[in-house]
Structure formats: structure tokens, C-alpha cells
Design goal:
single chain; about 290 residues; alpha/beta; 6-stranded mixed beta sheet
Length: about 290
Amino acid sequence: MKNRFLAPLLSALCLLGCGIEAAHADATLDKIRQRGKLSVGIDGASPPFGLLDAATGKVGGYQTDLARDIAKRLGVALETVPVTASTRVQFLQAGKVDLLIANIQWTQERSEILSFAPTPYDLVGGAALVAKSSGIHRWEDLRGKVACVSQGSNFARPLQETYGAVVKGLRGIPESLLALKGGTCAASVHIQPALYHTLNGESAGEWKDFELATADQLIPSPTVVWTRRGEADTQAFVDKAIRDWHRSGLLLATARKYGVPDAYIQAAHQKALQDRYDAAPFEKDFK
């Protein structure tokens, strides 16, 4: 007799508990709204994506503008937190930031420890900055030579396994460029837009004896906004914003404002006008 009444009671309690769990499965958006602030991890001063304001000492620019748009959609203030290749994943997992908009491309390994908004906002591959006198003109020419990358870079594996380079991980792009100038490495391998800006930006004169080894980008991969795992509501909110960026032309205009190469973004904008969007992961031969 007891079991006849106990079973429905347990079922009701289970449904109640499951409902509570589902309702609070993704509390990040609620927390952001409650504290009135969105915290976003961005790259440090790394033109053209991040520009240092000498007057304030803060980093602004492309990534900050995109983060500000998401904060505006949430109706909250924006806090940006500079991150490095060695700290960004830990900052997100530990809750020091709510999102990462920091030029982090999709990889299988990253997708196993973090979640992401599936619509990419760029497609970026690696480039190799080398001395003009180096004789390096193809990725294959790096065999047996030292290639400097940022710690945690997804370029390390193909450089080592496919092209036989000796990979040296450094804190970030500034340290890698310094090592290149000092002769510690034969190539500095980072995302193509950053190295393109090094050669063509304000400090171009310092790099007149250097060049990009090849126009072929190393493993072009979708650049996505990263979230913590299990945050489906946050993913959906951010993904809707990214699709709006593509469709409205906001992303294209912002890229052009800061000199971010926009070939992929322009193509994605045209697709978005037809209500078509890429979704990571994907493989695309886009040069």
C-alpha cells in the first residue's frame, strides 16, 4: 500500500527537482544582469584587434567594440579583461570572465573543455614572419628550424608534425617578435592579420627587412566566441548576436574601421543576407 502512494510522490519530487535544475542550468545570463556588468576576456594590445590607449592605459579596438555590442544587448556595462594564450582558458573556467572574444580559433581539443557560439565571426589561419634573407618561402622550408608561437597555439602541432619545425612556445606575439629579431627563432608564427599589421601598421619601418614567408595560411580555422560548458542559454544569446553582426553589416564595418582583413567577413555578410551562416566546426579552403 505504501508503495502505491510513494511512487507518485517520488515522481512528483523528481519532476520538481528536474524542473529546478533545468531552470538554473545556465545561470550566467542571470548573474550578468544581476550585477549589471558583462566581463569579457580580450587580447591585450595586439593590433589590429586590440589597441592600447596611452592616455588611459586600457585596451580598446575591434574586440572591445564587439564585446560592447553584446553588453548593450544585455543592457549592462562592459568590463574587458586582457588575457594571454596561457591564461584565457583558466580565466573563463574560473569565472573571472563570462566570455572570450580573443582570437581563439575552434579546435577539437578546445571544444572538449569549453563551449562556443557556433556561428564564427572570422576565419583565420597562421602566417610565418621571417627575415627576407632567410630563404624561407614555404611552410616546408621550416623543417629543422625554430618556429616561435604563443603558448597553447593550435599552430604548434602542424608546424611540428606536418612541417618538421622545432616549435618554441613563448608568452605571446611581442615576445615572439622580439625572439625573431634577436635570431632566437627563424620564424614567428601567429594569426595572419596580426603579422600583416606588424608589416603594414605604425611600426612598419622597424620590419622593413622582414616579410611573410608565404601567402598560404596555416590551418585556416573558424574564430568563435567561447563560453563555459553547459551554458546553452549564453551560447544561444551570443550566437544570435553574431548572426546579427553578419546580417546587418556591423561586423564588416567594425573590421574595416580597425583594418582587420575582411575577405571572409565580407563573404559571410553576403551569405547572411540570404539567411545562410557557417557553423563551426567546418573545413573550408579559403585563401
